[in-house]
Amino acid sequence: MNDVITALTISLVSFGTALIVLLYAWSIRKRTETHSIDRHKKNPIISPTSHNEWEAGGTFNPTAVKDTTGRVHLLYRAIGADGVSRIGYASSGDGINIDDHSPYPVFALKNPRQNIPDDCKHYSHVLYPSGGSWGGCEDPRAVQIGDKIYMTFNAFDGWDFIRIGVVSIKADDLFRKRWNWSNPFFISKKNKRHKNWSIFPEKINGKFAILHGIVPDIMVAYVDHLDSTTNELDSPRKQGVQEQPGREAYWDNMIRSAGPPPIKTEKGWLVLYHAMDRNDPSIGYKVGALLLDLNKPETIIARSPSPILVPKEWYENDWKAGVVYTGGTVIKNGLLYVYYGGGDKHICVAHTSLHDLLEWLLRFGKV
Prior knowledge:
Number of helices: 3
Helix content: 10-25%
Shape: globular
Low-confidence stretches: 15-31
Strand content: 25-35%
CATH superfamily: Glycosyl hydrolase domain, family 43
Radius of gyration: 23 Å
Largest sheet: 8 strands, mixed
Mean pLDDT: 87
CATH class: Mainly Beta
């Protein structure tokens, strides 16, 4: 009898030990299958102020470029009390603390939406769901190629006029705050709704490369120059949330758009993107990551199995609930800094080890 009890005790101990090992392995696997970028404790780093009417409605969705000294220059969407979206400017020596902030917009479209009655031209998040704006330039994305900085933006002039605008400036002029922009022009077709295109930060096979879609496939257009309207492109992007299908069994089963311009790394082009989960409608925009082939960026190498940024802080739910929207990144000291808009109102920053993010993508994001 004692032998039976002893054997049973050993079996139970062995089973318990095995269970503990399995639970530990499961917990380790769950931790490694996710990768979250770290929000900065000082978020938001820029918020709207009532004494600047041109940005009283919102300061959000920034893009970023870094100069040779390491200073980070932000160009962001600002909505005024008049309901017009313009581009504001701020910069930071350490990439976090804003120590230079322009008191006026640095770029704006001249004649947005002239056919709207004056009594309808005001900031209204209900009437104008595109961030509350009824017209102007939205959601910039900037890259430096050679001695020039190119900025794409969404030219929004009502739901019947949404085109991709491009403007350029000498890098030295931007860094010295001389706002000598080129004349803006459009690279998307008339009478089509196009948003959120970006330019690769270097030429590919001798041509400028434009990322104009990630659904259902990665879509890249190659052009010889970026200084005229002769390069108008017609992207086959479908309209509406339900028309942007992602991976059915994953967190990104509804794709919204690409985020910042692609980032060149030794492992491939890193592209952050926005997606939603129809099974989790209370949580809106989330941010994920793609890794594309350096020579043929239409080819996906890896794709994040889970989001890397999910809206949960107050400043990501302050105005439009559940929105994290990124348009700019820089790399400083091995860290990837991600600049994003929270709740269509605030500018925020998060960071992560670039090496760790790439290794996580390659290990768990195989396609």
